[in-house]
Amino acid sequence: MVETGHFALVLAFALALVQSLVPLFGARTGNERLMAVGGPVAVTGFALTALSFAALTMAYVQSDFSVANVWENSHSLKPMLFKITGTWGNHEGSMLLWVLILTFFGALVAVFGTNLPNTLRANVLAVQGWIGAAFFLFILATSNPFARLVPAPIEGRDLNPILQDIGLAIHPPLLYLGYVGFSVCFSFAVAALIEGKIDAAWARWVRPWTLAAWLFLTGGIAMGSYWAYYELGWGGFWFWDPVENASFMPWLAGTALLHSAIVMEKRSALKIWTLLLAILTFSLSLLGTFLVRSGVLTSVHAFATDPSRGVFILCILMLFIGGSLALFALRAGSLTTGGMFQPVSREGALVLNNLFLTTAAATVLIGTLYPLVIEAITGDKISVGAPFFNLTFGSLMVPLLMLVPFGPLLAWKRGDIFGAAQRLMFAFGGALLAVLVTMLAVEGETVFAALGIGLAFWLILGALTDIVLKSGFGNVSARVMLSRFVGLPRSVFGTTLAHLGVGLSVLGIVGVVSFETEKILTMRAGETVELSGHTVRFEGLHPFQGPNYTEDQGRFVLLGASGNSTGEIISAKRFYPARRMPTTEAGIKTMGFSQLYISLGDETTDGAVVVRMWWKPMVTLIWLGGLVMMIAGAISLTDRRLRVGAPARRAKPARPSPATS
Amino acid sequence: MTRKQKRLSIIAAGAGFLIAATGLTFYALGQKASYFYMPADLQTATLEPGQRIRLGGLVEKGTIIRGQGTQVSFGVTDKENSVKVTYTGILPDLFREDQGVITEGTFGADGVFVADSVLAKHDENYMPKEVADSLKAKGVWQDEQAGGGS
C-alpha cells in the first residue's frame, strides 16, 4: 500500500509535467486536441494524489512504523482521530495535503470550466500544472513522506502533544483550502497575461474562486486563532507571530481582491489592478509556505527545518513570483483598460478599500521581514512584535472600518455621500448610544474602549441599515418589504453578513483588550478567589491517566451567590511520556459570549499551586465574527449570478451586468 | 477638471496616502522594534533606562528560585556572563535548566532584568534561532542541543 502511494505520487508528478506543457503548446498552436488533454490529465492527477494521500493515511491508521514519517509522528496508543489527523501534522504529510488540495482545485477547473473558451481553459490548467509540478518535485526530492525505515521500530515517537487536538482536524485543511484556492485566481491571471487579453470569462470567474478561497482562509485563520487561544494556555488570541502574519497577509490581499473583483465584474474597470492583486495574493500564500517551512524566522509554529527545503521553496517562490510579475510587466501595458468613474461612487469606495487593505498587508509584510533584512545588513538581531503592528495596522484599520458602512450605500458611477450619511443617521445614533452607555457603565479611563465599542456598533448597525433600506424600508408596506427582502440577491446578504461579522470581531477584540481582568496567585485546596464578580473555589489537584498521557487535573468550582456550585472548571498539566513533553490544558468556562479562563502553573515550595485566571468579556465574538464572515462567503457563493453567470462557449463581448441596488 | 487632471489628482492622493503609511511604518519600526541581546552583549551595549529588549540565552543550572508566591527568578547565561531575571506568572511548559529561552522586558534600577514575557518554543528540541546562532558564534554550541531530543 505504501509503495502504491509512493508510485501514485511519482505518476502524479509526471502527469503534472504533461499538464504544464501539452495544453499550453496546444493553445499556442491552436490545436484543439492537445488543448483538450488538460482536463482529463488534471482529473487523473487529482485521483492519483488522493490515492497517494489515502495510502499515507492508511499507514498512520495501521501504525506502520516502517514508514519513517509515521514513526516520527505517531504512536500506537494515540486515539484514532489523532492518528488520522497526524497525517498532516508534520511537514511531509502537510505538503501532501497541500498538493492534494491543489490538484483538487485543478480538477474543479477542469470539470466546471467546460464552458470556458478553450484556450483560456488550457492555459489555466497549464499554469496549475506548473505549480503542481514544482511542489510534487519538492515533495519527492526533499520531503518524501513514504521513506522507509529498516529495521522497523516497534513503537513510534508520537505526535507533538500540542497537535493532539481536534484543532488539527480543522485548522490546516481549511487554511490550505484558502491558501491554495488562490492558486486558481493566480492561474487565471497568468493565463490572461499569456493570452495577452483579459477575457470577459476571467472577470466572471475570478470572483467566485476568490470568494471560495477567502471563506476557507477566513475559517482557517479564525480556527487557528481559537486553537492557539485555548491550547497554549497564554490566553491570547493573536500574537503577531510571523506564521500568523503569513496567513494574514494573503487574507488581507484576498479581501482586497474580493472587492476589486466586484468592480471588475460589474463595471469592467480596475481589470489590470485585479489581475495584479490575484498574482500578489497567491504570491503571499507562497511566501507564507516558505516562512513556515524554512525556519528563517523564530516562531511558535515552525515545522522541523532543513536548510535544503528552505532553499528549494525559495527557488519555487522566486520562479513563480518573479516570473508572474515579469510577465505582468511585459504584458500589462497591452491590456485594455477599463472606464473611469467619479471618486465618490461605489467604485471609488472599493478603490479606497483596496488602498487601505493592500497598504495594511504591506505593513504586515514589512514588519514580518524587517528582522531578516536588518540581520542580513547590520547583523543586529531585532524583533518586531505587537507594539509595532498595533500602531501601524491599527491606524490603517480604524479609518477603513469607519468608512465601511458607506460603501454599500453609494451608487455605482456617481454616489451621493450626503444621502448615504443621512441614511446612516440611525446607525450613527446607535453607535453614539453604545459609546455613552459604555462610558457610564464602566468606571475608569474608558474613552478609547468606548469609542472602540462604538465603532463595532457602527459596523453592525451600518451593515443592517444597508439591507433594511434595500428591502424598501419607509417606502413600501411591511408585506412588500418582506417579499423584497426575501427576493434580494444572495450577494447582498453576503455583503451585509460579512460586514456584520467584521463588526462582531471588532466588538470581541475591543471587549477583551479593554475590559479583560486577570489574577496571578497561589492557591491551596479549599481556597476561593473572586474575579470580576465570579467566585471560584480550588478543589485541589487530582491525578488522571489518559490514553497516551498522564495529567494533574486542577479542579475548580464556580460558586453562585448563595455559595452553591454552579459549574466545574478543569485545568490540567499534562505529560506525554513518549516525547517527555509537558503541556498545559487550560480550563475554560463560557458564559454568554464571555469566558472564564484558568491556567495552571507549577507547584510552589510550600505545596500551593500557581494559578493564572482571566475574565475575558465578549471574547468568543472574535471567532463568531469569523464564522459569520465564512457563512456570508458561502451565501454569496450561492448567488444565482455566480452559478449561471459563466460565459457561453462563443465568447461574447464583456457587458457589465446591471447593479443590484 | 479634465479627465487627465482628475486622474493625476487621484494618483497624487494615493501617493500621499502611501507616503504617510510608509512614514508611519518606519517611525513605528524605529520606536517599537526591540533588540535581541545575549548576556555578554550587554557589556558593550548602551541601553536607555526603561528600553525594552529581548534577552536570550540558556537557563543557568541551579538558579531557578520559585518562591512561595508567583514570582520566579532565574539566571540567563551564554556560558560567559549571566543575568538575573525575574518574572511573575506561569513559565512556559518547556522551561527547563540548560534550555534555550528568550525573555522580553526591561532592566530595573538594581540591574535585575524584569521580564513580562518568557518564550520557550513548543518543541522538545527548542533552541530559539537567535540563541543558537549566538552560541555557535561563541563556540559553546554542542550538537546534541540542536538535534536528537528524545
From TrEMBL, chain A:
Localization of this protein: Cell inner membrane
Keyword check for Transmembrane: yes
Bilayer disposition of the protein: Multi-pass membrane protein
Cytochrome c-type biogenesis protein CcmF C-terminal domain segment(s): 314-640
Domain (Cytochrome c assembly protein): residue spans on this chain: 88-294
GO molecular function: heme binding; heme transmembrane transporter activity; lyase activity
Location (main, coarse): membrane
GO biological process: cytochrome complex assembly
Keywords tagged on the record: Cell inner membrane, Cell membrane, Cytochrome c-type biogenesis, Lyase, Membrane, Transmembrane, Transmembrane helix
Keyword Membrane: yes
Gene Ontology CC terms: plasma membrane
Segments passing through the bilayer: 6-25, 37-61, 95-112, 124-141, 174-194, 206-228, 272-291, 311-330, 351-373, 393-412, 424-442, 448-469, 490-515, 618-637
UniProt similarity note: Belongs to the CcmF/CycK/Ccl1/NrfE/CcsA family.
Cited function: Required for the biogenesis of c-type cytochromes. Possible subunit of a heme lyase.
Descriptive protein name: Heme lyase CcmF/NrfE family subunit
Organism for this UniProt entry: Mesorhizobium zhangyense
Automatic annotation (TrEMBL), chain B:
Classification lineage: Bacteria, Pseudomonadati, Pseudomonadota, Alphaproteobacteria, Hyphomicrobiales
Primary localization class, coarse: membrane
Gene that encodes it: ccmE
Originating organism: Mesorhizobium zhangyense
GO molecular function terms noted in the UniProt entry: heme binding; metal ion binding
Topological domain spans for side Extracellular: 29-150
Listed name of the protein: Cytochrome c-type biogenesis protein CcmE
Entry-linked NCBIfam families: PRK13254.1-1, PRK13254.1-5
Pfam family of the protein (one): CcmE
Family per similarity comment: Belongs to the CcmE/CycJ family.
